[in-house]
Amino acid sequence: MDQKLTKIEIITRPSKLEELKDALNAIGVLGMTVSQVYGCGLQKGHKELFRGREYDVSLVPKIKVETVVCEIPVERVIETAQKILRTGKFGDGKIFVYELSDAVRIRTGQRGVDAIKDIPGETPER
């Protein structure tokens, strides 16, 4: 395997999802997994007022976008995400980058880079 597989995990505000997906698609990142997650960072949550009482909300709703790239430069993905997500306020999120040792397409048994690339001429059943 001559090309490197890299997993990029982006955790950010749910309100930024559509804009982030569009920006990643525009640079060629087509496959991604999106999860609704809860977490806290440096701000350790916030206080909310509900029916006259104050409550500590320690886990804040976020989204996690995961993708694996091999041909698109990792720095380009990071720069694109930062450009879309940065507000300069607490809660903008984090980006984590992992080197992968392998990937396997279950249906065909393809491994490595071939497992994440589109197969020319094939269209998924819907």
What is the secondary structure topology, with strand pairs?
Layout: E1 5-12, H1 17-26, E2 33-39, E3 46-50, E4 53-57, E5 60-69, H2 74-85, E6 94-100, H3 113-116
Antiparallel strand pairs: 1-5, 1-6, 2-5, 3-4
Mean of residue pLDDT values: 89
Number of strands: 6
Number of helices: 3
Rg computed from alpha carbons, rounded to a whole number of angstroms: 18 Å
Helix content: 10-25%
- Strand percentage lies at 25-35%
Measured between the Cα atoms of the first and last residue, the distance is: 31 Å
Return the structural class: alpha+beta
What form results from the Cα inertia axes?
elongated
Q: Biggest sheet, in brief?
A: 4 strands, antiparallel
Write out the strand line-up for the largest beta sheet, numbering strands in chain order. 2-5-1-6
H and E string: EHEEEEHEH
Query: Oligomeric state of the chains?
Result: single chain
Low-pLDDT residue intervals, each spanning 5 or more residues: none
Please name the defining characteristics of this protein.
126 residues, alpha+beta, 4-stranded antiparallel sheet, two-stranded antiparallel sheet, 3 helices, elongated
Model description:
The protein is an alpha+beta fold. It contains 3 helices and 6 strands. The strands form 2 sheets. It has a 4-stranded antiparallel sheet, with helices on one face. It starts with a strand and ends in a 10-residue tail after the last helix.
